[in-house]
# Entry
Amino acid sequence: MDPFLSLFVEESQDHLDTFERAVPSLGRDTEAPEAVKAMFRAAHSLKGTARMMGFGPLGDLTHLLEELLAGVRDGRISVTAPLLSALLHATDTLRLMTKKAQLGEALEEACRGGLRTTLGDFLQTGSSSGSSQGGLPLLHADAPLGELLVMEGLLAPEALDAVLARQPRIGELLVQEGLVPEHAVLQLLERQQRARAEKTALTTRVSAAALDELSELVEDLHQRLSGGTNAPQSDDLVAKSERIRERLRLLRLVPIATLFERARRLVRTLQREQGVRVRLRTLGEDLLVDKCLVEHLGAPMEHLIRNAVVHGLEDPEERRASGKAPVGTVSLRATVQQGELRLDVQDDGRGVDRERVWAEATRRGWASERPGDERALLSLLFRPGFSTVSAPTSLAGRGVGLDAVKTEVDKLGGRVEVTSIAGTGSRFRLTAPTHRHTWQHASSDTDPSAGPPHMERVALRAD
# Structure
C-alpha cells in the first residue's frame, strides 16, 4: 500500500474520532465553544489532506461541514437535535468514504444527496427543512427501507440482519443466471480476501501509548538493576536491559522524509488548485525522529505551507516589481539543536503586515491599545479565529488559524517562533523536545541558518 495513503487513513480516523467525541458537547452551553473549535480543526485538517491526496468528494463534504460549523460558531445556526444527528451522520459518511479511499473505490456514491441537502438546509435557513414526504427527515431520505424501519422502531435490528443474511449474494445470482462462471467468482473472491489481509497487515501501526508504557517498564527495570533501588544487581541483566532500551528507542524512529514528501504533495496540489508556481526547497531529510513528532507536526507543517502560499507569496508581477524572481520559494528545514527538533517553514514573500494584524485585532475587540513590542503584536496571530482574509475560500479565511498550529505544538511540550521582515519574508519555526528519540546519519550540529539577517525573534511558548 502507498505509505501516504496508509498515513492518510490513520490520520483521518483520528480526526473523525475527535469530531465524533465533540458532537455531544456541542449541545452543552459550557462546552460548546471548545467543541466547535475541536470539530473545526478536525474538519479543516481532514479537508486539507483529502484534497492533497486527490479525494475531492471527501474534501468537499468536510468543506461543507466547515461552513456549517462556522455558522454555529458565529451564532447564525442554532444547535438542535436534528443538527447533532446530521453531524453524526456526516461522521459516519466520512468514515465510509475514507474506507472506500483506502480500498481504491469510488467515493461519490458514499455521500448521497440527502445528507448534502440536509447540511445545505442548515446553512441556508439555520435549520433542516424536513421532508415533503410525510415529515421524514431529509437525513433519512436515501436510507434503505430496512434501516428506516429500524429507525422508526417498527423492526428489530436482529430481525433485519436475519432477513438480509438469507438474501442471495450478487455472485450467486450472477452464476445462477449464467452470466459468469462459478470458478471465476471464487478465484476473484479469494484474491480479494488476500488483498484485504495484506492491506490490514500494512496499515497496522504500533500504538505510541503502548511503546511509552513498555519504555517506562524497561526504564524502571534498568534503574533497579543498575543500583537505582535495593534490588540485587546483575551486570549481565543491566547490559541486556540497556540493549532493550536502545532497541525500543530505534523502534520508535521513523524518517522525517515522510513529512517532506507530504510537503511536496501539498505544494503540487496548491499549484494545481491555485494556478501558481512555487519552488519548494528542503534540507534535513536524513533525520530519523520519534514517530510521535511526525504524527503531531504533519498538520501544523501543512497549515504553515498553505499560509505561505496563500498569504505570504506575492503574485509574479508584484515580485518582479520588488526585484524578486517571479517564482516564490517555500523552504522546509529540519535540524537538531540541543536536544530539540527544529522544523522551519520559511517563505521569501511579503512578510507579516503588522498594520493588518493590528486592524483585525481592533475589529475583533481583542485590544484597545497597540502593543509596544513586536512579540505582543505578533502573538495576536495565534488567537483563535484570527484571519486577515476578507473573503473565505477553500484554503483560507475559514477561522482555523495559527492557533491550531500552536495547539498541536503545545501537545509536544514545544513552542512556535516567528520571524518576519516586511518585503523579505517570514519564517515559522516549530520546536519540540526530542526526548532522546532523534538520530541523524550525519552531524546534528548542522548550521540551522534561520531566515534573513537581522530578523527579530518572537518566541511563543506554551502557557
